[in-house]
Amino acid sequence: MEKLVDETTENPIDDNKQEEETVGDNLGSDETTENPIDDNKQEEETIGDDLDSSEIKDTDEDDEGFRGDQDSGNFMALYEESLKSIQEGELVRGEIVQVDKEFVLVDIGYKSEGQIPIHEFVDPEGNNTAKVGDKVDVLLEKREDDEGIITLSKEKAAKIKIWDEIKAIYEKGGIIQGKITSRVKGGMSVDIGLQAFLPGSQIDLKPVRDFDALIGTDHDFKILKYNRRRSNIVLSRRALLEAERMSLREKTLEVLENDAVLDGVVKNITEYGLFIDLGGIDGLLHITDMSWGRVGHPSEMYQVGDPITVKVLNFDKDTGRVSLGLKQLKSDPWSSADNTYPIGTKIRGRVVSLADYGAFVEVEEGIEGLIHVSEMSWTRKIRHPSQILKVEDAVEAVVLNIDSGSKRISLGLKQVEPNPWDVIEEKYPVGTTIEGKIKNITDFGIFIGIDEGIDGLVHISDISWTKRIKHPSEVYKKGLEVQAVVLSIDKRNERFSLGIKQLNPDPWDEVPEKYKPGTRITGTVTNVTDFGIFVELEEGIEGLIHISELGSDKGANALGKFKVDDVITAKVMNVMKENKKIGLSIKKLEEGEDRDIYRSYMDDHKGATSNLGELLREGMLGLDPPTSEEGETGEEPTDVHEVEGEISETETTPAEEETEKGEVS
């Protein structure tokens, strides 16, 4: 159908007003409109009558010359008369005789050809459709102007023909095709050869949300009403859809029954399910009947307009409600799960959701298994499954347990690989020296990477034999390469103990021999406490001088004499290798020095002593009595007064007196 634009008519669509005229009024107005084609027919019949009468008159003349002149005159008169019968505004059929750049010349039987602008023959793609010899229907707009040019219009002729077709389609209740071209107030504009109006309520069976999506689409329409005088045409698509739906409904009711399997189309999606158009009848497919497995939202499986095959679960003829099922088209997979997935079977699945305690894996449609966080890694401590898994990940796991009655399957992710703790003892026996990077530092020690997923712990007490370490970070940094010795492996509790100090021998093994009791030492004060002072004998080896062993001074007075970094001398009292303790004493050192001084003094006066003095000296100093041989030296005994004088001289010093008393005691 050729589509024309009438430049002389008003816009067929009024944005502000919609003429609410009845179809009867429209028909009445159409019937009163004169038909130019019928008028042409009447005029053609008149011309035919005139021609017949003239022919009869021509045959009655006897004189040929006169008759020839008469025939010529009559012919011209008849021709002029026939031309007068073609009126402006009439439809005529002509033939294209010439096509140039601006006009197309058409022979309509007039004394000169009529012309039509070339643009009326250009299609939407810009191609010229005019060809010499083609027959076209045209409208005579103007017979002759001052230059004798006849003006014709192909578009206006097509428009008149379209109105005739619209009238015929409307009267028969037929269908007309058109293209939605634009959105207007209250509806859409449709091109059916003329511009027609499609109200928004007549576009579809349900309200349309996106009008713009319909622009450029072709549809069938029913003509609700038209007014030729006002160039107003109102269309409906909904009327055709309703009629089609009623026809489909009757066919669907013939086959609709419980357990019937029907094809449909997804009509609407809600949170609780899908509405399916079965053909004039809608049914509800609830989300719980969509799959044997888990469905988060119906839109995950289907979209509006998707075809779908469903099973009728229940049809209530009284209410017209139809319940549908999709999963019922398949058997319940749990019915054979025990045989399909025995314990120990390796399966492949898809992670469908994560929880704090594990990950749910879809083994097949309708069957999901749980991988607990404790079953995700042999070596790592997984706090949340998101540390190693995410939704939609494809995973391989091992069936650990299955309970088809409760519809539960326990899966293990770490069981896919062998447990590294099973071979760790063979790979790293106790005493082996290993090397690795420090992965983590804590208050109680450092973790060293041993094998993939296995870390060994060096406790803070195993870092050094001698140094007092408050925090491991004082000595080591994360990422540092270190060596350590394997101390123990607890496979059951998955613990790997290492030691760094064990790389070197324990210096305390030599302390008992190196620092025997009575040994005089010199060291540096490292700490002063209420109960004594600590003295460093060498790096990492410390001894304690108890407050009671500080010397002649007592209590706080004795402690006040010392401070950190003082260098002092003391004697070793005892060594406890097991407890790594060394007892020191300044007091014993002082006592020993006084005794040595006194002995030296007495040795200088040995020859002047009497037997009594010798006895007294021996008793005081704990010396052995002289042998009989010494008494037989032949020396004369010393005077008693001299001995007493010597004794009195030794008692002149209070410190010496106290020392001697102590030695005697």
Concise description?
By secondary structure, this protein is of the alpha+beta class. It has 14 helices and 30 strands.
Helix content: 10-25%
- The shape is elongated
Q: Identify the quaternary structure here.
A: single chain
Low-confidence segments, given as residue ranges, are: 1-68, 605-610, 621-665
The overall pLDDT, averaged over residues, is: 75
| Total strands | 30
SS element count, helices: 14
Most strands sheet: 5 strands, mixed, barrel
Distance between the termini: 145 Å
Amount of beta strand: 25-35%
For the biggest β-sheet, the strand order reads 1-2-3-5-4
Which radius of gyration do the C-alpha atoms yield? 62 Å
Structural class: alpha+beta
